[in-house]
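[Discussion] Sanity-checking designs against the backbone

I'm trying to build intuition for which residues belong where. Below is a C-alpha cell string of 74 positions. I'd appreciate it if someone posts a full sequence so I can compare it with mine line by line.
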C-alpha cells in the first residue's frame, strides 16, 4: 500500500458482529478495492486513528474463515 493513501473519501461499513454499546467495533471500506487493491480496516471508536490495509484476497480469506467459524473459541 502507498503511504499516501488518503482515506478521507472512504465509505465505511460497520461489521454486523459489532455491538451498538461501544464494544468491539470494526469498520471496513470497499472504496479502494478496485483502485488500490486493498481494504482499509479501522476501530470505529477511533475514526481518526490508524487504519490497517489488507489485500482484497486477504480480506476475502479472513471473512470466509469467520463465516466458517474458524476463530470461535470453545
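Best answer:
Here's mine. Compare freely.
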Amino acid at each position: 500500500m502507498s503511504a499516501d493513501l488518503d482515506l478521507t473519501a472512504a465509505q465505511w461499513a460497520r461489521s454486523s458482529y459489532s455491538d451498538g454499546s461501544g464494544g468491539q467495533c470494526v469498520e471496513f471500506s470497499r472504496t479502494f478495492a478496485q483502485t488500490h487493491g486493498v481494504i482499509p480496516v479501522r476501530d470505529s471508536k477511533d475514526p481518526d486513528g490508524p487504519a490497517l490495509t489488507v489485500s482484497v484476497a486477504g480480506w476475502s480469506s479472513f471473512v470466509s474463515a469467520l463465516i466458517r467459524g474458524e476463530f470461535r473459541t470453545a
